[in-house]
Amino acid sequence: MKLSIGNKIKTLRRERGITQEQLAESIGISFQAVSKWENDISLPDITLVPALASYFNISIDELFDFNLKEIQKKAEEICREAYKYRKTDPKKSRELLEEGLQKYPDNDILLNNLLYVMNYSNNPDETISVAGKLAEQTDDPAVKYDALRFLAYAFQAKGDRNSALAAIEQLPEIIKKNPLCHKTERIFPFSIKIFVIATIYVLLHYFIIPAKFISPQSAPLPQMASAPRFRKPFLP
Predict the structure, then answer these.
(1) Lowest-pLDDT range, 82-91, 165-174, 200-209, 218-227?
(2) How far is CA 175 from the centre of its chain?
(3) Is 68-207 a CATH 2.40.50.840 domain?
(4) Is 50 exceeded by the pLDDT of residue 32?
(5) Count of beta carbons in the 10 Å neighbourhood of residue 158
(6) Distance of alpha carbon 88 from its chain centroid, rounded?
(7) Neighbours of 91 (CB within 10 A)
(8) Beta-carbon neighbour count of residue 172 at 10 Å?
(9) CB 75 within 8 A of CB 112
(10) Which segments of the chain belong to CATH 1.10.260.40?
(11) Residue 181: which of 164, 166, 198, 167 has the closest Cα?
(12) Each residue of 33-72: pLDDT tens digit?
């Protein structure tokens, strides 16, 4: 994303009706420095950023035009477009998501959707890398549990049973303590255990917990007057 702090400072200064000299005097710098900022010749020293934000009575995020809601909205639009091609042209779907990640690096929604166009059976290491990063960085429990499911499947495909179990152990207690899980562990092979645990989680999430983001596995968007609520169906 292009950093536009110079234009932001110019807009804020004009809205306040002050000159470059007045702004410079208020924060203890030369007016030439302000001029260079506004003409995108240089950027403010990092130590001046809090003072600038305080002077204009805005947050540092606003000063840098960093709008998280707008970023999420654009990421969701990319995911909607990529979803159209997930089954018919997964390569194109992946390209769209990777282009989105170049604009918005490490965005949770984009990374979550990217997992669904990766082949954890043929290339488990790739899935492990993305899912591991996502599980570690996200603050959204639904995204984290989805990433952990992919980690479990990928480690199982790789033959790393211990790592798959470690991923499963990080799932919510409501899943791990479900009697069905313990019964499955005694009677069925490990791969079936993973499937049952993942299925229980998805059922709970699909019918009980509304998703707070564009679900990578959501059905085609219905035509609604208001914004639709997305829920997570089963793994592909």
Answers:
(1) 218-227
(2) 24
(3) no
(4) yes
(5) 17
(6) 24
(7) 9
(8) 15
(9) no
(10) 5-63
(11) 198
(12) 999 999 988 888 888 989 998 988 888 877 876 667 778 8
Dihedral angle, C-alpha 130, 81, 171, 209, nearest 10 °? 160
Among 94, 101, 69, 128, residue whose Cα is nearest residue 1: 101
The segment(s) of the chain belonging to CATH 1.25.40.10 are 68-207
Place of tokens 């470059």: 20
- The C-alpha atoms of residue 64 and residue 73 are separated, in whole angstroms, by 18
Higher pLDDT, 79 or 189: 79
**Tens-place pLDDT, residues 140-171:** 899 999 999 999 999 999 999 999 999 999 98
Q: How many residues does the chain have?
A: 236
Rounded alpha-carbon distances, angstroms, from residue 54 to 61, 63, 125, 203: 12, 10, 47, 48
**Topology of domain 5-63, per CATH?**
434 Repressor (Amino-terminal Domain) (1.10.260)
Mean of the per-residue pLDDT values of the chain: 77
Q: What is the mean pLDDT of residues 166-188?
A: 55
Centre a 10 Å sphere on the Cβ of residue 188 and count the other Cβ atoms it contains: 12
Amino acid at residue number 82 = A
Q: Which tokens belong to 84?
A: 């159209």
